[in-house]
Each structure stands twice: as C-alpha cells, then as structure tokens.
## 1
Amino acid sequence: MLGVLRLRRLVRQVPLQTSFVFLFLLCILSVFLSSYFLYVVKRELEPSLASGRAADDLYVTPSRPLPFLSGAGGTLSSDGSRTDPVVLVFVESPYSQLGQEIVAILESARFRYRTEISPGKGDMPTLTDGRRGRFVLIVYENILKYVNMDAWNRELLDRYCIEFGVGMIGFFK
C-alpha cells in the first residue's frame, strides 16, 4: 500500500514535458521491437519455399512477397515482363467524373489503357493472350464493384493478379 502511494505521488510530480518525452521513447521502442519481430524473428519461423513447388502451393504472407516464377504463367518478353504495358480501368459508366479523371491521369502520363464497364455477372474481359497477361495494372473506379463481384469472376481476377504479379488499385467514394 505504501509503495502504491509513493508511485502515485511520483506520477503527480512529473512535469508534462517529461511525460511526453517518456511517451515518445516508448513509441520509438515499440516501433523497433515490432520491426525486429516482423523482419527477423518472423522470417525464421516461416517455412522456406522449395524450388520445385507449383504456383498453387505458394504460401504468401504480407511480410514475404510472392516470388517471381519464371516457369509458371507464361513466357517473358524482351524487357523481362510477362504482361503487356496496358492498364485496365473498370468504371461505373463511361461518363462518370472519377472515371474521366483516372483516364486523364493515364493519358497525361502516356500510359496505354483500356476502359471497361465494371463487370456484373459473366462479362469479364479477357485477361490473357495465350500465356501472356494483357494488363499490368487493374484500376477500379469504385472498389465496391470488386467487393460485390460474383465469386467466379473475382476468383479469376485474383488468380490472374497473383500469377502475373499484377497490382490492383481501387477508389472508395
């Protein structure tokens, strides 16, 4: 009981600046500890990938990115990519404001793009051309269209993104 009273009296007498310095040091310590755990300890705990495993057997976590598979997914082009440098943009309508702004940004950066209406059921555009991917990036004007997509198309799109290393960007209104 006496120890609790002493601690309470000590906390009351600590100036505000000292409290902020203590909290700052505590935050820095927690950042270092979490980064140590994520990049050192967790990597030791994860199983390593065998070189002969198939693409379906990959174990991917946020701390370990998907490795580049040279045999799976298609042939490499002269620049080393397995996809064409085209961006697929899913818009809600051809006249939507955000869709037009996305297209304007892509045009100003001189990216090749293809605009499609967000798929509902069964109207997903062709994603591959033989063993090559057709798109290097997929952009959704409304990410809820991707979330509410039917299971078949979503699985198809997810497999395409994993197999060809394609990124996806979605905007939320």
## 2
Amino acid sequence: GGPRRLLLISNSTLHGGGYLGHCQQHIQNFLGQKVKRVLFIPYALHDRDAYARTAREKFESLGYGLDSIHESCDPVEAVRKSEAIFIGGGNTFRLLKALYDNSLIHEIRKRVLEDGIPYMGSSAGTNVATVSINTTNDMPIVYPPSLKALGLVPFNINPHYLDPDIKRTHMGETREERIRQYHEEPNTPPVLGLREGTMLLVEGDKATLQGVTGARLFLRGKKPTEHEPGTDFSFLLNDSNPLNP
C-alpha cells in the first residue's frame, strides 16, 4: 500500500478544448510511468460503450491502456485487479446508484485508501470521491440507497462552480445560495467550489489546488473565501477521519 493519491477534476472538457485536454499533463504527471492500465467507470452516462470509446482513445493517446468496468463480467474483481481508477462525469445520482448496485463502494475505498492505487475523478466522478453527493448540481433521476459516497476525502466538492452573473436577470438561486442552504443543516462539512479548469491533487495528507481558474471555499457559519491555484488545502483533510465517513 501507500498514501491515498487522488486527482479530482472539476470538468472533463474545457471550452475550446477536447476531452480531458486541459488536464492531460496533470493526468500524466499523476499516473506517471508505473501505471500501465486504467480502470474506467462510465456509470454516470447512459451510453457506456460510447463513453468508454471516448475515454479509451484519450488515455491511449497519453500512453495508457484502458479497461471499462461495464465490459467486465465481475466488476468487483475488476476493481481488485486495477492499477488505477478513473470515474468520469455525467449524472451523479445514476453513478452513485450503480456503484452501490455493483457493490463497489467498499472495494474502491479499500483499493484507494488501503492499497494506495491512484484515483481520478471528473465532475460526477469527483463528487462521489467526497463524503457525500449532497452538493452535486445534478437532478436526482434515479434513487441511490444513500447520498453517502466513497468518502476518500472528508468534505464536499461542488464541481463546475459558477459565480453569480450580475448582468443576468435570472432570479433563480445562485450556486453560493444553494451551498449556504446546505450549511444551514447541522454538522455539514466544508464545500470546495471548483471552477471549470480547476482540480484538487491529494497526496497522502497534502491537498493542493491546481489548474487555471481557482476555487471558492465554503465553511459552515463563515463567509466564503477565494483561492488561487497553488493553494494548500491540506487542512481540509484533517476535519475528520476519511476512513470513517
């Protein structure tokens, strides 16, 4: 085993670029030379075959083989044998339900937290890496048995974080207001709002913001704060024991 290693990406595609194009250098740095094959989990989208083709093409261009878990007759065994795991974006509720349905929550946690294999997530795949999916932007199109997720980190993330647009006349709730409503509930953990083009690198007990756009941090009962790439967010990992979400 080794320390947990996570690359939690806000979004798969950045405006003007291709699939994972904006973070491909980060992915190569993260996976390094030791990893030869990546286990892809496409459960967040309905067309898993097409999703796997897109991911396979990208990872092969970066020098990595890719196996999609939906092509395996034994998903649990696929996780147990994996060298690295990548969970892609889509609908977070659909994704989490499929992880529960296939008995993968415990298996993925064990591989990542005990065995130390690299875990990558983008969008919904980042949501499920956290303590729960309470701060997803997605509609609950299916009903997972719990909103508790993998608990690889002891806080929440809001991928695709959007700042309020002061020029718009839309009167719906802003992302910030929705997160504040979440924090009106007791004992709710921090929420890291990751803007497009931003990601969080976790190595053991160290967490660093990477990418180009920055993040907004929400702590219950406090004013939100603004953070640039390079920020050390390691203190977020100490709020509770991530082995007991």
## 3
Amino acid sequence: LAEESPDSAYHGNGSSPEEEEEAERLEDEEQERLLSYWQSVGRGHQVDVPRDMAEPIQQLTRSNNPQERQTVPFTLIQRKENLGDLLYEKRQYGKAKWACIKMKEKQYEQSICLGFMKLMRYICEQNSSGLYLGITIPIVTIVHTNESQSEMTQSVTVAYYLPEVLQDEPPHPFDSDIIIEEWPSTIVYSRSFRGITNEDSIMREINLLAEILESPELCLQDTFIIAGYTNPAAANRHNEIWFLQRP
C-alpha cells in the first residue's frame, strides 16, 4: 500500500506538490485514527496492538467492501426451520488449504485478537508473494472443550481460508507460527448468533445447538468451530457455531 501512495495515485494526473502533500497528510491521519481505534478495542481484551499493525489495519479496512470478500464455498444440504426461524443449516465444505495459527492466551478474546493480527500481517504482504492476498470470510477459530462440554480449553486455532486462486500454491508466511494446512472435506451443522465471542457465549451456543440437533452424537463432542464474518474489533459481530460431523 505504501509503495502505491502517493506516487501512482497522484503523479501524472495534474496534482500540484501541495495537493500531494495534503493527500499524504490525510492518509497518515486516517492510518492513525484506525490504529488508535484498534488499540482501544485491544485494551478492552487486554491485547496490545503494536504500531506496525497500522498499515495492515488500513489496508484491510480499505478492502472491506462486502462485494470484494470471497466466501468460503460450501454446498447447502439442509435447512432446519421452526415457524419461519432458521434453527441450523447442514453444509458440506470441500477439501481446502487454510493458513492456521495456534494460540493459547489466558482468555479466548486475547487468542483470537492476537491470532487475527498475525494472520492480517500474512494477508497484507508479509508472505513470499509480497502481495495483498485478499479477505475471505469467515475467519474461523477451532475451539476444544472437555468431554462433558462444560468448559473450554485454552488452546485455540485461528484460521484463514486461502482464496481459490491461491489454493494450489499458497504463498509462504514469513511468520513461522503460521502453518498452511489442508483440511479434508467436512459436513458441518451451522447456527448463526450475534455479539461478542467469549468462553461464556461460546459454551451457551454449543449447548443450544446440541439441544436443537436430532443426533448431536453424530458430531465431534470436543471440537467446535466459531466462524466470524465481522472483524474482532466490531461491536455487534455476526458469528456462527459449527458442529463437525464425525468422519
């Protein structure tokens, strides 16, 4: 992003040096505003957002047009409704490559914020291609519970679906903590919910979906996925809880 501005954006279109200077100043102000917003959100989750996140944050924010986000492809198998309300969807996701990072912070919110920041750097040019890779949704987090599904373990995996054009040859991350994994084709049972995601809200959604499903025992009992369609800094997030059908 920095290489493109202001040269390619302003030179050759009749702009004066003063106009270019003003555009640069506005660019810097916008970057500062976004960084300070993320830093204030981070403090709420006890996460420090470093200054080197300013550029990835600005790049992702600019590229946040919903039409430009590639959704992870799936085949809808079944929709279960009750009096017009959608209870859950049964979907099949195909085999695909994901960039994954394991986190083990004290709180779930800390893990997803820190994991998401590392993935943002990878998406925003810190990869072997040197290119902005593009946003895909949802960003997913794999969580684990004890056998009785009464509490979550601290270890989570935050994962980013690689856009289809990069599936065959994913760019290598510069961050050695990020691993490219190929996930097998999977059937999931998905239920939507809104708001923050923390240990309490996730356990509530797990128990709710377990009650709604006719045969929850067909799914893994200790591994679940939280799918996030909105960035972790958003107040009213759109999320889904996914149960994974046993292979």
